[in-house]
Amino acid sequence: MENHLINKVRITISLVLMYILAGCSSPTLPPATIHQSNTIDVNSYKYLIGAGDVLNIFVWREAEVSGTFVVRPDGMITTSLVEDIPVAGKTPTELARKIEEILSTYLKDPVVTVTVNNFVGPFSEQIRVIGEAAQPQSINYNQHMTLLDVMIRVGGLTEFADGNSATLVRVENGVQKQYDIYIEDLIKNGEIKANVDVLPGDIIVIPETWF
Questions:
Q1: For residue 7, which of 22, 69, 144, 156 sits 20 to 30 Å off, Cα-Cα?
Q2: Are 87 and 114 in contact (CB under 8 A)?
Q3: What CATH number does domain 124-206 carry, 3.30.450.20, 3.40.250.10, 3.50.50.60, 3.10.560.10?
Q4: pLDDT tens, position by position, 8-61
């Protein structure tokens, strides 16, 4: 019995050492890249299709090739005539023109309309809220969205949040910049001047208070 227990201990120690050694020898992962959104101001926003979006593609007088399609995680869809059409990152209008171009091989002068349901959009267009929000999450951007709109979506601050030390991270012209934002003044004190515009791709970091 004693020998059996000694053997189990030895096996356990060996496994632990193997995991430690494997961790030490693992290559370092490259840092994640923060992608810049195509939107540089609130008035230039155009919705871009992303994985998970539901597309209604209507081809005039061609019911057989019309239909509803879900954008796959790889950003593509498959229709009855064409497989693997890349759609992520395009506006609905751009996609309609692209499908017309593809279908012109099979049909005479196709006319295509694309509408979107279940808006998700590409990751580069989503706003990420991390830290001491009540419900940290990524949310879809809507044109003219403000900081107050974002905080309503994430349920406000936790009781441990230091809202006035929060930071907005934004990529501008390929350069990552940080801006101070005053969430507590906005949602607890009603300071409307703290209600700044947000843009697609913004990251809002809410730290924990020190006391």
A1: 22
A2: no
A3: 3.10.560.10
A4: 545 444 544 444 445 555 567 776 566 667 777 788 899 999 999 999 999 999
